[in-house]
Amino acid sequence: MARILVYVESAEGKIKKGSLELLSASKAAGAETHALIVGPGTKGLAAEIGRYGAKKVYVCDEAQLGAYNPEIYGDVIANAIDSDKPDVVLATGTSSARDVFPRVAARMGAGIATDGTELQISGLDVRVRKPLYSGKCTAIATVQNSKVRFVVMRPNQLPISEPAASASPEVVAVAAPARDLKTVIKNVVKSTSQKLDLGEANIIVSGGRGMKGPEHFKLLNDLADVLGATVGASRAVVDAGWVPHSMQVGQTGKTVAPTLYIACGISGAIQHLAGMSSSKVIVAINKDPEAPIFKRATYGIVGDVFEVVPKLTEEFKKLLQ
Amino acid sequence: MDYIPTQSKGDMMQIYVCIKQVPDTETKIRTTATGIDSAGVKWVMNPYDEFAVEEALKLKAAHAGSIVTAISLGPKARVVESLRTALAMGADEAVVIDAPEHTDNYATAKALAAYLKSQTCDIAFSGKTAIDDNSMAVTQMVAEFMGIPHATVVTKFELKDKTATVEREVEGGASEIVEVKLPAIFGANKGLNTPRYASLPGIMKAKKKEIKEVALASLGVSDADFKVKLSDFELPKERPQVKMLTGDVAAQASQLARLLREEAKVI
Fold this sequence. Notes:
The complex is a heterodimer of chains A (321) and B (267). Chain A has helices at 17-28, 46-51, 70-84, 95-107, 217-227, 235-239, 270-276, 293-296, 305-320; strands at 3-8, 10-11, 14-15, 32-38, 56-60, 88-92, 112-116, 118-122, 125-132, 137-143, 149-153, 170-173, 183-189, 203-207, 230-233, 260-264, 281-286, 299-302. Chain A is an alpha/beta fold and 321 residues long. Chain A has a seven-stranded parallel β-sheet, with helices on both faces. Chain A has a five-stranded parallel β-sheet with strand order 15-14-16-17-18. The termini of chain A are far apart. By secondary structure, chain B is α/β, with parallel strands linked by helices. Chain B has six helices and 13 strands. Helix content of chain B is 28%, strand content 28%. The radius of gyration of chain B is 22 Å and the shape is globular.
């Protein structure tokens, strides 16, 4: 049986879905599941982490972990791994996890497989399937020649199991050692958007050149609000300066795999498909019936986005109320 | 023994750019038992690395006498082409570390770091990720092996008195302003700059430049440093045929809402 240490992340006092997916996967595999959570105010989440299967929860809630600093986070994670001696460390692919875990792996002389979309755990054996070449093929990544193996998964890929009614895991404090910092976080500029990050969103409504101008993204925002979705965009409209780069889905933007992706006025250039074709259900709305996006779509509507999108907003509103 | 970085004196800097050659997005990928069939693959410089090269060249322009060296690891016969692209854009020197296909992030970073440690390296740039395996690890691993700080997903870069102030993009459109003391390595994101095109004279000059060759084994990399093995290559599952919705706009919208709820069960 493997000992698995799950790196759990939270935002606004709530455990991230991606972390719950990994706790569930570890529990389902019958592994000895431990967890690590860092950040001020996270200690209170230990019991909930326990309900998802962790028997032991390492916590570092020191104030200096309030903002992500790769040096401090790296030290704390390495300390927890040194104490716990897990066979495998699992993390969900948030921006801080993707940043820090390769560094920790290098420090421990260990291998790391990232951007996994399928996870197979059987005894000590861990196999990760991951997309390669923008999703044009996939392969199994196996970590070898390592005492501890690191795996970073894409969020929204794995089922979350029902939590136990109650749990009281062992809680172990981890310290952040003092060090001469070469990296200083000066400021964190929060986005004004209340919506989930594209990488974590369950539903994405995306707009392309067919939206004809930045002012029309309001239509997509309205639709997204009804669905609890996040708004994305194609490269063309980002390059045109209609929306910021943080909204770009595709090759030089975000790779996403929500359960529902609604592409509005997006033709489906290969660079865009590279970032979203592993979405579970794809809806394409485009006035050109020959648009390549229809080849990847589950449902297609040939029509004018300016008529179809408001109608959909209305329809979903009725359905979801 | 701890690595003690040698730093250049005065204003000039030794600037390194780590680049990777990857299949062009438009290229068709065919799988074989052990990987991909490289016949007919068009190889290009990883798009994020173009931002890294550009930032290095901008820094050189602002610090007289600086040298930009592009370094790449992979099968020598092909990766030299991306190094020539970097030279044509304006890099002064190029180094190739000959290594097999699918050399993993750990071995790659260990080799790059070993080479950079043997040189005077004041600052290094790379792309935040390579689009082939989207591992997003080498920048940070190079930093760890060198014992220097890093910042990835960098969208703004400013340097003053050997301290860089960078903006990095994080979740949900938020960003962090981070100060990093040199020597350090930075992973470039889109938005950092607009990469220049190679000029014709630049391309002609690049053809004649010598590219330094380094063997992987000479950098202390052994079989045990290959830590991620790729196997079972597969093409993605074919998607079922699209279901086109017909009727007027109202009918299409209500059909879609019903299908998403009852058939796809996603809302």
